[in-house]
Specification:
Blueprint: H1 2-16, H2 24-32, H3 35-46, H4 63-82, E1 86-95, E2 108-117, E3 127-133, H5 155-168, E4 176-182, H6 190-201, E5 206-212, E6 230-234, H7 244-253, H8 260-272, E7 280-284, H9 296-301, E8 306-311, E9 324-326, E10 329-331, H10 340-359, E11 365-370, E12 377-382, E13 390-399, E14 407-411, E15 415-418, E16 425-433, E17 445-447
Parallel strand pairs: 3-4, 3-5, 5-8, 6-7, 11-17
Antiparallel strand pairs: 1-2, 2-4, 6-8, 9-10, 11-12, 12-15, 13-14, 13-16
Length: 448
């Protein structure tokens, strides 16, 4: 009878915490995202003619140099308007020609544009990063002088980042948020690789990297299908970097579908969708699309948690295409093809996820699951060491064949004894803040 009663109580807790409470401040920020602002940002980036990474860096009106200075200027404008504790920098990175950089024919100093909104808690070293790539290209990846508007790929992503900075710089968060317009994506993910390696070398506590790349189109080429209600979130399956112990844990749990980045993708869908008013996230169980790459990849390769946002339907007559008309088809990535309301909705999902993470406690630590011949599952964990203090924890469950968490059980202790067989379920745990904000989910390490 003890566990029958416990089971009833657990189901009550699960139901009570099945819906996340909306934060009025996050709701207000989401409502501030403007498709008109995104349209204006994209138009300005297109006006530079080309933003190819090997293009002019001196001109005030054209080329990558003018574009990155303009983005930095917008970040500075937002800082002045809000009085935010936000630093803005053009972070240089030397790129040399060679076998690793086949699209770089000469020494180039690339510069990522970073706006760092400092957290209010000096003891909270967590960092969140949201990024879009500033550079554009034509059919020929080495054409650095031809007009390459790059309205969707990826002025749309940078416009989303700018809009997030405009809105979020008016508020304060316990941890630090970095807004980035990265250079060199089309030449081999070079700017992202540079920053990821810098952060890894400095042992930065980057808990999530959100990459927005091609987020402004809703109609597919070839089929004409339209989907302006959902965006794809790509996440890796098996982590690109694992220690021997991490590999052993993954194999013992059979948790190939539960990488930290996959958990982040689930988290975004769970906490951000309720703010997005019918706009949804489709969790794509792949790290990226076929034959393409994105700036989240170097972060994954440096053992960070990263995902990619990309429109559900892509139009290949507009991506990586020199402006021209052939067989009555107009090729080129022009502003008139961008769905600005769609891009704004992608921004709203980004904002809700980032703000929720920034306001939440850090994830619990030292999560363990006792492995024995028993139909009761014994779980224990340690409280997070940084961030807001938790009021409790959610233990999450799903049957082994399910892609998403099915039950959420709230506890105030640092352990739980559950009447669910460890053989039939995956388990996770997340911290719950006083304001109801949720940390990322972690999986247990099996112990005997």
């Amino acid at each position: 009878m003890k566990y029958n009663l416990g089971l009833v109580l657990l189901f009550i807790c699960s139901i009570a915490y099945s819906q996340n409470k909306l934060d009025p401040e996050i709701t207000a920020m989401v409502n501030e995202i403007s498709s008109d602002s995104i349209k204006s940002h994209i138009a300005k980036m297109v006006s530079f003619g080309t933003r190819h990474s090997l293009s002019d860096t001196i001109s005030k009106t054209s080329g990558i140099g003018a574009a990155r200075r303009w983005v930095a200027g917008k970040f500075i404008q937002f800082r002045k308007q809000s009085g935010a504790n936000m630093t803005v920098q053009l972070d240089p990175c030397e790129i040399l020609p060679g076998p690793k950089n086949p699209r770089v024919p000469r020494r180039v100093i690339m510069k990522n544009v970073l706006a760092t909104l400092k957290g209010t808690d000096p003891d909270d070293n967590r960092i969140l990063l949201v990024s879009g790539h500033l550079d554009s290209r034509n059919t020929d990846a080495m054409d650095s002088v031809g007009q390459a508007p790059g309205a969707n790929d990826d002025a749309s992503g940078v416009a989303v980042v700018l809009e997030l900075a405009r809105v979020m710089s008016k508020r304060k968060f316990p941890c630090t948020i970095i807004f980035m317009a990265v250079q060199g994506e089309e030449q081999g993910l070079l700017g992202a690789r540079c920053l990821a390696e810098k952060m890894r070398g400095a042992n930065v506590n980057l808990i999530a990297m959100l990459n927005d790349d091609i987020v402004g189109n809703s109609v597919a080429s070839e089929t004409g299908d339209k989907n302006d209600k959902t965006v794809r979130i790509f996440s890796e399956m098996i982590p690109a970097v694992e220690t021997d112990d991490e590999k052993k844990t993954r194999e013992s749990l059979r948790a190939e579908n539960d990488s930290p980045s996959r958990q982040l993708a689930r988290y975004i869908k769970d906490v951000a969708e309720p703010y997005a008013k019918g706009f949804t996230a489709t969790i794509n169980m792949r790290p990226d699309r076929f034959l393409r790459g994105g700036d989240h990849t170097p972060f994954l390769q440096n053992d960070f948690i990263a995902v990619r946002f990309t429109e559900f339907n892509e139009n290949y007559t507009q991506q990586h295409q020199t402006l021209r008309t052939e067989n009555d088809i107009a090729y080129g990535d022009l502003p008139q093809h961008v769905d600005y309301k769609y891009a704004a909705n992608v921004g709203r999902l980004n904002l809700a996820a980032i703000a929720s993470l920034a306001k939440a406690p850090a994830s619990p630590e030292g999560f363990k699951m006792k492995v024995n011949l028993d139909n009761i599952t014994y779980l224990s964990w340690e409280a997070p060491k940084v961030g807001p203090k938790p009021k409790g924890y959610n233990v999450l469950l799903r049957e082994t064949y399910q892609p998403f968490w099915e039950k959420r059980i709230f506890v105030t202790d640092l352990k739980a004894e559950l009447p669910y067989s460890k053989d039939n379920y995956f388990f996770g745990v997340q911290a719950v803040g006083e304001n109801g904000h949720l940390s990322q989910v972690i999986l247990p390490v099996p112990v005997r």
